Structures are given as structure tokens and as C-alpha cells.
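SEVERITY: medium
COMPONENT: batch folding queue
REPORTER: lab tech (J.R.)

DESCRIPTION
The queue accepted two submissions in a row. Attaching both inputs and their returned C-alpha cells so the on-call engineer can compare them side by side.

ATTACHMENT 1
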Amino acid sequence: MNDMHEKEKSTTAKVLEISLEGYQRTDDPEFLDALQNLLKVDGLDTSRLVYSGFDGSFIEEHKPCPRGPGTFAMNEAGWREALKAEHQCPAKYAEGWDAPCIGVYDGSLLREVYDADISDYPEDPYKRADIEIKEFGEDLKDLEPGTPVMEIVAHVNYPDDPEASPTDALLRLVIIKDS
């Protein structure tokens, strides 16, 4: 078994599903509440989780989760702030893909990115945006509870470990289903 295969295997996260109720939209606070309840029932402490929306087509095709040095993500406080400001949240972003999915990450393994160049937003669901990180911020575990996280995050070990990715902190993949 080669190192890459072991790395892919180590990033396999449990897959859950959440259905939109007839009255519910992904940019509705009730959707976030339902998502967090689902995660609590599944045994997660939601206080330090971070969420990112993307295309989950790779799940059905049994491919590994795409990797990159950073990903756009929000914690609960950031998500709620985005909803109040009528900005896009992870679930709303995911809606635009063939297989809407929310990645749920262990925030204690991530840190904020204060400055980055983004040169490509691929339409290929197996690739992430080309993010070149220029300046790192705080480790998310060091932020006060309730501090919004609303931009790019990176793994705490990156760039010391150039293979480190937010994908390594992935706990769950939540597929959004229409009811």
C-alpha cells in the first residue's frame, strides 16, 4: 500500500443525509439547526465544528475527497452572521452542485487564513479552488467560543507538512436531499 492510498483512506469520513423539509431552504436558520441536531444525534459536539459546502459527487463515485491547502468554511457563528447579512452560507453554496454536500470539520485541527490568492474556481467537482496561502491567522481552537469564522481555513500543520489539508480534519460528509 503506498502513502497516497493510506492518506486517502485516512480522510474517509462518515456519510450522513439531511432532507429539506417542504418549507425549509438551505439559507434558513432552521436548516442549520436541523443540521446541528443531526450531528449531535450522531455523537458530535457541535461547538467547535466548521462547515464547507461543495459537490459531493465523489462520494457516489467512490473517489477520495478532494484535497488542497485551504477551503472556504464557516463555523456556526459565521454561518448565522452570513444568514443575517444575506450572504451565502455553506449549504446555499452546495446547492449549486449536482450532489450538494456539506463537509463537517474538526475545528481544533484548522486555523484561519488572513490572506490568500485565489486564481481558479474549477467547475470540476474533484478539484478545489486554487488557493495560495500568504498569511495564516489564529488556530480555531484558540478563538473565543462564538467568534465567527467565515473565510478560508487551512490545516494547523500546513505548510510545515505540505500534504496537510483541511480534508484531514473532515469528520462527516452530509448529503443534502430534497424532500
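ATTACHMENT 2
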Amino acid sequence: MNYRTNSHSDVGCFLRWMVAFIVTSLLLVGSAASVLAAESTAVQGLDGYIASDCIGSEGEKTGDVSVFVEVNKDTFPPADIEYRLLRDGRPDRPITIPLSAGPQTVVKEFSYGPTGSDDGPEFVNGDVMLSYQGNVIDQDSFYLPECEQGVVRVSGTDRFKTNAELVNRLRPYEASDVFVASGYSFPDALAASPIAAQLGTPVLLTKPNALQGVSIDVLKYASPSEAFMVGGSSVVGSGVRDQLRNLVGMVDRISGTNRYKTAVALSQFEFTIGASTVYVVSGDNFPDALAAGAVAGRDSNPILLTRSTGHLNSDTAAEIRRLDPDNVVILGGDKAVSSTAQRDLEQIVGKRNVSRVNGANRYETALKLSASEYRPSTTDTVYLASGENFPDALAGGVEAAILRGPMLLTKGSRLSDGVADEIIRLKPDRVVTLGGTGAVSTTTQDQVRDAWFESRFGPTP
């Protein structure tokens, strides 16, 4: 009897112990989940980065890389920012900066200059990483480019060689990805440029059926891990695809059945959770659209296309509804994007949220966009390309976006009206003209140099 009573009591104790164990375990699991949740939200990711131009000319250069982060005030141990550098392609020791609580901008200045027997300036590029408790939770790439002042021409003997020169400036050592688009048709490369700028990757221009030798050399030098062909097989064909497969680890295609759907596919590829501003340009004619890449890429916003006449393209309309932007900016007058299309846009996002930037011609449209988006002394570099053809402006759009400079357009034989005044207003450290003398003549280059000199030192007596 006593045995049975003691046995029942032992079972009851065991059951009570088990219940207590299970409840405690659940509480501990819940507590652990709370800790994990707290850790995952303790540090907000990099809110972009600024890779500034260098300061100085010959000798030592300086440049800074700035990142914005936010750390929860209760975070312990603190998070940190780590810079991993390549100097002349060689790894340098990492630099780690601890973060304090709260929102903050971390600025790290680097000094760099000619090394050894090399008279040219040294390039510095690398990665900046945000870590918490030893785990990398966000990272981005940066680079500090060649130090230039005054007026610089970047050119090759044709559009593909000019493009290669610009790609080499953008990524002197390596690029994780590369976009490959037609060098004979503007829409696909234009829509790809802001995405490439956001990712810090180049856009290579190609002929429909084969990469140029200079483009192959760029790919061998940059060693990207993935290539994205932009557009259908009629603009970037199977021959290009086969060459890319021999040069790059992975090859994918981003395309639609037409240029409008390709632009939508690019937008959906990168802007998965929407965009603050959408730029809408003509898919039929390039002039007014050329200046869009620099601004859209600077602010990480997409470019979508529509026909010049009639209603807004239906695929574009659907994508704008998905993106749900605060603003839509139309580039060009009614002949570029019709008033009917503008009314369609107003019905989607509201009349107050649609604006149009246009001038009397393509050159004035680019000037008005620059005047509305760039303040004096806030951009180090201004880009100038021919408005009579598109390849050079398209090729330079990615660099212009990354270095946060406007793309201005000019006639080839002489500087277009208003361009000199805009250079003087902006007071840049340098003006980069794109293309050879057939695109931007020596006379035009001299006029640009006069405007730059006045912007820095005042009118010539």
C-alpha cells in the first residue's frame, strides 16, 4: 500500500517536473527567438555609399568613402564597419571602425598616389562591410578613381573602343557582374544603365552577333562572375552568348518581346520592392532620353519607355502601378512623350506627382534636367557627349551616375547654347568629354576648357 502510494506520488512529481521543463524550454526558446529577432534588427544596413573623387593633382591624392548606418541604442557588443582595400590590384590590410549607437555617417579618408616607377595616380577600390557580432549583414563596393582636373577626353576610334575605355575607368580591377547590350540600338542600354550604376557594374556595348576584340579584353581583365545579356537574340545574339560563356562563369538574359517589355524586365530584376521616382522616356527616339541615365542611376531609380504617340504603353503602365512611385518624371516634350501618355500617368500616380522636363531641343532638355538636379559645387565631374548620336552618352551614363555628375549634350562642331553657362554654374573639378573629335570637335573642346577655367578662376580679363 505504501509502495503504491509512493509510486503514484513519484509519477505525479515526474509529471510536474516534465510540465515545468517543457514550459521553461518554451520560455527559453521564445527568449532566444526574441534575442535573435533583436539581433537581426539591431543594425540597419548600409544606406548607400559615396565614393568621392580624389582631391589633388600630381603627387599624393586623398579621397573618402562615406556610409550611413543606424545602430539600435541597446546593441551590445557594438557593430562595426570594415573596409577591405585593393591598391593597384593588391590587397591591403583591412580597416575596422567601431560604430556607436544611433544613426551615423562614417567617413574614412584614404591617401593614395603614384607608386614605384608609375607616374600615373594609383587606383583604390574594395568593399565596405557592415558587421554585427562577427557576422556580415550588408556590404557594398567602392572605388576611388583616377585624379583628374580640367577638361579630359575619353575616346576610342569607334563606339566600342570608347565604351571599353569608360569601362576600364569604372572598374580598373574587377567587376562582379557585367551587362551586355546592343551598341546599335539605344533603349536596352539606356534602361540598363541605372541598374548597372546601382550595382557598380559596367555596361558593355556589342554588335548583334559578336563581341569586339576590345570588349573581350575588358572581360578578361575584369573577370566578372556573371554576365547579363540585355534584350532579345536579335540585338544580342547567340554568337555573343557563346563568347560570354567562354569568358564568364554564368550568363543570363534579361529581355522582353520588345524594348518596352525589356525595360520592364530590367525594372523587375532590380526594383523588387518599388522605387521613389520613375523616369519615363521615349522608346522611339534617343535625344531627350540620353540625360536620364545619369540622374536615374545616381538616385537608384528605373527608366521605363513608352511610344512617342498615343497612350502610355500598357506594360509600362502596369510596371508603374507595381512600383507605386512617389513621382514620375517625363523627359522631353509632347513629340517625345505625348500629352495623352502624360494624362495616363496622372491617372496612375496623381496629377501632382507627374512632372515633365523639356526644352526647345535635346540640348536644352539635358540642361534643364541638370539645373533641376545638380547644385553648384556639389558634383566633381560634368560629362559632355554628342547629342547627335547615342553610343558615347550611353557608355558614359554609368560612370556619370556613380560619380553623381550630370550628362550634358552638345553639337559636334560647336558647343551648344547654354552648356558653357551650366559648366560655370556647377563649378566642377573636371569636365569629361566623351568620344573622339568626330563626336566632340577640338573647337568644342576648347570652348569647354574656357568655360571650365572661368568656373574655377573667374572671367578672363
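NOTES FROM REPORTER
The chain has 13 helices and 21 strands.
No errors were logged for either attachment.
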